[in-house]
Amino acid sequence: MTHPLRLAIAALLAITLAVQPVAAQSVLRDAETEAFLNELAQPIGVAAGLRQGALKIVLLGDPSINAFVAGGQIVYIHSGLIMAADNASEVQGVIAHEVGHIAGGHIIRGGEMAKAAGGISILSLLVGVAAMAAGAGSAGMAAMAAGQQAALGRYLSFSRAQESSADAAGSGFLRTAHLSGKGMLSFFGKLRQEEYRYASSYRKTDPFQQTHPMSAERQATLEGDITKSPYFAVPTDPALEARFQRIKGKLFGFTQDPPVTMAKYPESNQTAQARYARTYAWHRGAYPDRAVKEIDKLVASAPHDPYYLELKGQVLLESGRPREAIPPLREAVAERPDQPLIAATLGHALIATEDPAQLPEAKRVLRVAVQRDDENPFAWYQLGLIYAGEGDTARAMLASAERYSMQGETRLAMQNAEAAMKGIPPGTPDYIRAQDIAMATRGESERRRR
Hints:
The chain has helices at 2-17, 31-47, 79-84, 88-103, 106-133, 137-176, 182-198, 215-228, 238-255, 258-264, 272-284, 288-301, 306-318, 322-335, 340-352, 359-372, 377-389, 393-406, 410-421, 429-449, and strands at 26-27, 56-61, 67-69, 74-78. The chain is mainly α. A hairpin with a 4-residue loop joins strand 3 (67-69) and strand 4. Helix 2 packs across helix 4 (88-103), helix 12 (288-301) packs antiparallel against helix 13 and helix 16 (359-372) runs antiparallel to helix 17 (377-389). It is globular, with a radius of gyration of 26 Å.
């Protein structure tokens, strides 16, 4: 009896885990990429009725072609999807689909459906166990199997309905935003090719055992609506498309092994996309002089481009030349003062010089960076080093509390926040912030303990 019971419980857990968001991937932070993706998404968010600036795009380091939402107004996109997309319109189509999930409240409703499916599974599990306990082993197994199949079928049917709903909503958002849906259609064509490529038994695939409708079906359903849109033939802004191709080259160079990058982007290719890719390839391959030479050509083509300047500073800093990194990073910050990631890199370079005269500027730029970016634990680490060097142990502890809180280290965050409160005057903004972290992390620790 133990073996079938274990199988039944495993099936029940499978339904529960089916709706859990993927949380293991690493987040890729890059100022240029984040600015581009969020700019690409904003018209869609506004068309969906979301507050201006509320929609956020997060890039994950994952080679698979995927995107998802996991609550709130955040769309997670895998780096593999950016690499697979031919143009900015295709990425916009994917974002529109995911915003359809947000606008439809599908995450909340998906959790409710998982609960309902779990209820069916638990009931069938109890009936089956009771039958087996009474000596009817075959009947008990049949009851459990039927229950698991019914629960899974109900959940999968609901999931397919959500995907179709998000497709329809996404195409509507594109129309409302006066954007073409061509990219949405062409990307479904890519997904269809993937299905053919990875499923040797594609023709035998049971559509009722899928979480998504088959891509060919989705493409056919959407084609009528999208092609009838008055904006179907509207081309993507050439400047936006050029930025996308730049980012693709940068991402390729960052994620792929240097020989692979050099094979795809040989030196005969003099586009900005190729130069971006090769800069990362030379840098990752430990050829800093070649990397600087490559990025210098980009800077020469656009002397005040903040992202070219940022990359030059990054290469110099990570090659052990922080003093040389400071001028391009300072200019990059001056060009884009709204980009805290660039400011944080400048702060890092200033500290890395080990020159006490540079610390006041480092402190100033890092304080601005952490105020504008609540997801950069390394910037808090750097700021903590400055506070510690100044003998301000309490604020160094607060900086550590902020860092640990971002990293999910609740116990360490609570300990550092409580220690910071002992040395910071009560009622001041820093004291209140330490108090907030201590209370939040204490509550989270209690919840985990329970």
